[in-house]
Amino acid sequence: MPAPIQPPARVAFLGLGVMGAAMAANIARAGFALTVHSRSRAKAAALEAAGAGWAASPADAAREAACVALCLPDTPDVEAVLFGAGGVAEGVRPGTVVIDFSSIAAAPTAAFAARLATERGAFLLDSPVSGGPGGARDGTLTCMVGGDAAAFAAAGGVFQAVGRTVTHLGPPGAGQVCKSANQLIIAATVQAAAEALALGRKAGLDPEAMRQALLGGSARSFVLENHAKRINDGVTKAGFRAELMRKDMRLAQQAARDHGVFAPATGLAAQMMEALVNSGRGEMDASSLGALVAELSGLVPSG
């Protein structure tokens, strides 16, 4: 049984991109001792200046940690950090809780959890998040968690430091399946919003007046409130990059295939994300899908 993890226990955080760095900072603010590691030490500078320790490798970071957290781009990155040379598995102690905040494939996640338990006696929780950079900064992320229930309970203090809505969904991989469901809903809804706005423009409607009208009815949604506004305003600066949404939609398609789900909306949304990245917009915000739909409709993109 893992012991409860409460401040001032040591937490190691591996992966300091926009999301990871903000989450690590909130863990430190909650009173945990923090050790960090990233491929680029420059990304750790602000955290080190605030008192975090630097580890030369994931193994070194894991050796003295009660909890190890990861936030990495994709499945191969997580496997390498866990089980590659100098990886977490070389240093982690029995009973340690490892929380993977990355969005990766569900089936490998379950395999990673089983391997970590067998080889090291440690617990792996998959906890992909939703809420974007703002949620990471404010500590209001939604955490979708799979894995051992006792490990989930033990790590409650860490989850409270980064998230507002934290839900245990089942065995290893369950969090990743839920995140795929989250992403397919968002991507499919962005596609629908992009088509709706293009339709309005082609029919001579003011797109912002149209958006406001739709917000007053049953079509109201987070996507209509936020992504559709970005489409109308011509915003391309990435809050969530199109290439990452493409990766997530590939994961959603794989999850649907694994579970035998008839998923035409997922297929279309994934196809459009492939087209969006192939149009040269991979580094832009995923809502740039609106510009692609406008172009394909014979319109000049907004902005």
TrEMBL record:
Its EC number is 1.1.-.-. GO terms for molecular function: oxidoreductase activity. It holds the Pfam family NAD_binding_2. InterPro entries: 3-OH-isobutyrate_DH-rel_CS, 6-PGluconate_DH-like_C_sf, 6PGD_dom2, 6PGDH_NADP-bd, HIBADH-like_NADP-bd, HIBADH-related, NAD(P)-bd_dom_sf. It comes from the Bacteria. The keyword Ion transport does not apply. It is an enzyme of class 1 (oxidoreductase). It comes from Sediminicoccus rosea. Residues 10-170 form the 6-phosphogluconate dehydrogenase NADP-binding domain. Belongs to the HIBADH-related family. Keywords: NAD, Oxidoreductase, Signal. This is NAD(P)-dependent oxidoreductase. Residues 1-24 form the signal peptide. Residues 173-289 form the 3-hydroxyisobutyrate dehydrogenase-like NAD-binding domain. SUPFAM superfamilies: 6-phosphogluconate dehydrogenase C-terminal domain-like (SSF48179), NAD(P)-binding Rossmann-fold domains (SSF51735).
